[in-house]
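Sequence only, no structure available. Ideas?
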Amino acid sequence: LAQVSPTAWTDCLKELTQANHPIVLIKSAHHWLGRGSTVDRAALQQWLTQSSSRIIFSVCHRHLVRHHWRQQLTPIDIPMPNSDLRLQLWHQTFSQGVKSMGTVRWNSLAKGLALSPQQIIDIGQAVTTMAPDDAITIDHLQQALTQQGLHWKLRS
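Reply:
I predicted one. Tokens follow.
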């Protein structure tokens, strides 16, 4: 998104205005509001001011958003789930368990990796696409974690 031309951004804003959605969620807001953004600031400001939509910008690191925008927008911090909730999410995501080759140390995983619910779900989906015939193994889970840039020893 950061490499999108200013014309494409303008077209995107026009499209969002015409769609007239009640709520617009913009993930990776730093692409829109960050230092390297190619979005025309005046056009974005006009859209924000005139839109009838509730616009929610999502960003993992607030410092990536320009100071100008941080002053104008109302931040809402959503805390990461604690380890007990993460453990529950891991168990829900892998309710059928993980087969063979060792025991997954779920408690250790939940305590050691401060992941969001969406990250845990994404890992679960990645594992599901890797595993043939729902035969999910600890190696599939290990591979999915590695693909997410997470290095964690799963075997006990």
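The first helix runs from residue 6 to 19.
Hope that gets you unstuck.
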